[in-house]
Amino acid sequence: MRTKIVSIFLVMLVTLVSTPQIFALPIIDERQEQNPEPPVKEEKPRVQKDDIIMLDNKKWLVVKKEDDRFFICPYHGDEKFYGSSDWGWFYGEQCRWMEEKTLISRIKENQPEEIKKQKEQEIPWDKVITDNYLSQLDASHFRNLYTKVREVAIMEPTEKHIHGYMHMTDFMRRKSLAFAHATQDFVLAHPVYDIQKNTGTTSWSYPLINEIRRKQRDALFKRVSNRAGLYFFVSGACPYCKEQAKIVHWFSADYGWNVISVARDFCTPEYPNCMVNPDLFTVFRATYTPSLFLIYRRSDNKPAIFPVGNGLTDYQTLKSRIFYYLKQLEEEKNQLLKTEFNPEKF
Q1: How do strand 291-297 and strand 303-310 relate by DSSP bridges?
Q2: Of 26, 157, 231, 332, which has the fewest CB atoms closer than 10 Å, so is most exposed?
C-alpha cells in the first residue's frame, strides 16, 4: 500500500515538473519598464501663424488659427492683401478657412519638387512647338498652357523649355496681329463702329476738329438762347460764389443767356437777377454753393433741368457740360435726358 502511494506521488511530481508554464510567473525586464520605446508617429508639416505655404501652385499666408482650422490669404510679397492695387482683394482674390488635416494634406501634395514634376508631365513639349496643335486649343486652354510653359521655362531654362516658350509666344503674336488686321478691315468697312471718324488720329487733325466743334457749340448756344438759361444758387456771404459770378457774367455776355441767381440768405450786387428763395434750394436739391443748373424749355413747353456745376467751375468746363446736354436734347437721342427732371438720378 505504501509502495502504491509513493508511486502515485512520483507520477504527479513528474507531471508538474514537465509542465512549468502552469505555475510560471511573468518575467519583468526592468530596463524595458524604465525606458519604453515610443510609438512610431508619422511626421507631418507644422503650420503656424505667419507661415508662407504653397497651395494650388501659388503662395498663401497663414493669417491665424482657430481650433483645428487655419485662415489663409493669397500672398505676393510684403504688400497688404486689402491694400495692394496689383493683387489681392482688389483683383477678386479671396481668403479662406481650411481644416488643419486638409491643409496639411494639401501642403504635402504641393511640395515644390512634386509641383515641378507634375508641371513637367502635364506639358506636351513635343506638341507646343507645332502650330497645328496650338490652333486646336481654345483661348482659355492656350492661356493656361502658356502660363505653365512660361513658369517652367523661367525656373528651368533648358533648350526644350525655351523652345516651347518662344514658339508659343510667337504663335500668340501672330494671332494677335491677324486679329488686329481683321478688326481694322471690319471697322473700315463698317464706319458706324469707327470711334475715330469724328476725332481724327493725328495731331494734324486735332486743331481742325476742335475748331469745328467750337463753331458748332457757339452756334448752338446762340440758337437756344431764347429757350435756355441758368439758375445760379448762391449765398450772400460765400466768397466762392462771388468768384463764380464772374464766370456766369462772362457766359451770359458771350451768348445772351438769361441767368437767375437764387440766394439762400441775402443778395449782393455781384449776383445777376438775384432773389432770396431758400425753398428753391429744396426743390432743386441744391446742397452746395455755388451751384449751377441748366434749364431748357422743350417744344412742349416742359422744362428739362440738369446740374452743370457744383463748387467753382471754370469757363471751358461749364461750356462743355452745357453743350453735352443741349446737343443730346436737340438731337433727342438720349432717353434719359428726355425724362422729367429728377435730381436723384444725378
Answers
A1: antiparallel
A2: 26
Q: Phi, psi at residue 54, to the nearest 5°?
A: -105, 125
Residue 118 identity (one-letter amino acid): Q
Give CA–CA dist 171/149, Å, rounded: 14
Domain match, 89 and 132 both: no
24: which DSSP letter?
Answer: P
- DSSP letter (8 states) at residue 79: S
Residue 32 belongs to a domain: no
**What pLDDT digit, counting tens, does each position of 136-164 carry?**
999 999 999 999 999 999 988 999 999 99
pLDDT digits (tens, 9 = 90+) for 248-281: 999 999 999 999 999 999 998 889 999 999 999 9
272 contacts: CB under 8 Å, gap ≥ 6: 232, 245, 248, 249, 252, 259, 260, 261
Q: Which domain holds residue 97?
A: 51-120
Instruction: Give CA 111 to chain center in angstroms.
Output: 30
Domain match, 129 and 116 both:
no
What does DSSP say about strands 96-99 and 228-234: parallel, antiparallel, or unpaired?
unpaired
Q: Are residues 256 and 170 in the same domain?
A: no
Confidence (pTM): 0.47
Q: How far apart are CA 268 and CA 289, in angstroms?
A: 14
